[in-house]
Amino acid sequence: MTRKPTISQFLVATSLALLLIPAIAFGQEKLSTEKAGTIGSPTGKIAFIRDKNVWTMDVSGINQTTITEVGNASGRLSWSSDNKKIAFTRSGKVNLQGPDNLGGNHKVYDIFLAYVDSATNNNTTYWYRLTDGIGSRDPEWSADGKTLIYYKDMNANFVNAFLPNYQICLLSPPETGNEDLLRKDWQNMSEFFISPTMNADGMIAFVHMVKTSEGGFRQQGIAKLHRDKFMASLKSVNAQSKKMANFVAPAWSPDGKWLACISNSMNTPGLYLFSADFSEKYLVFTPPPVTSLITAAPSFSPDSKWLTFGTRDGSIWICDITGNGARRLTGPGMDTNPAWSK
Q1: Which neighbouring-strand residues pair with 293?
Q2: Which of 305, 327, 306 is nearest to 316 (CA)?
Q3: Domain assignments of the chain as residue spans, ordered by start
């Protein structure tokens, strides 16, 4: 006679099946030590945001120092090539109370410089403003230190703007140069590019935003274009970002071999590496239980062998590109957006 499983047996079987799901979902290929090459000990410093101020620390997590006390730092940080300055974003807010209940809160941003030497001299209240269009954010310094790349909401200074218009810009040289919008047809665009990162050859990886059926926008995936060929058709960009769907927050390695990014897929979350042509994919790190990775660009060490990144419990981590050597440097707390020195 065939026996029907009891309720307790069914629950045990179900629990075991659920335990197996992460193992299947996260069973992604990792970069081999042979392909990664020699990996030494990490060196340098890491800048990060703590409680909306800019801080730095050694890669061991010690010597944590306040660099700039602004109270509204937000988003990506980037070191200058001489490691004397850190580009960062400050956030603000417009509160429109129009007639007939029109309006609401509207976020605004601009890019500033923090000076490491100022903090060394006990002056943490000095900074320098780079942009003034109240829409620029998430800067990254070019490898040669001559250009700053970032994205900007072209509608930020329209207090009654219904939707943003995000465009990728270059500022050359960063402290005295003119802003260059890479898409010359930006006024007619209905799809947008955000979170840019540029390698030494001028190849820009970014997140492609497309319209939703509800009339808003969503991050579809990552695409890349050379800075001199940024007027490529949106159709070709769409084809790229569909292949890289659910990947966001890209960051080039200094040697140009790898693109690190975050997967925001519920099935395969984690920090990933792609080869420069996107043909190879490797899982680097999956977050520990009860937290997740922040969808902010990770940052490579100068030798391209290590990565730093943040988790949503306010912690800063590092690990090498094979996924080994993972350790928490700070937190849990209020730390985010780490950036490795050059």
Answers
A1: 311
A2: 327
A3: 46-287
Query: Residue 229: is its pLDDT beyond 90?
Result: yes
Please tell me what DSSP assigns to residue 201.
T
Q: What is the pTM of this model?
A: 0.88
- Tell me the two tokens of residue 256: 């140009």
Over residues 117-144, the pLDDT tens digits come to 988 888 999 999 999 999 999 999 999 9
As a whole number of angstroms, the distance between CA 30 and CA 18 comes to: 23
Amino acid at 152: K
Residue 73, helix vs strand vs coil: strand
Work out the percent of the chain whose per-residue pLDDT is above 70. 91
- Whether 186 has a pLDDT exceeding 80, the answer reads yes
Tokens of 333: 């707390």
CATH topology of domain 46-287: Neuraminidase (2.120.10)
Q: Which helix (H) or strand (E) holds 35?
A: helix 33-36
Are the beta carbons of 310 and 334 closer than 8 angstroms? no
Angstrom distance (rounded) from CA 180 to CA 305: 32
Q: What angle do CA 43, 44, 46 make, to 5 degrees?
A: 120
Distance CA 72, CA 74 (A): 6
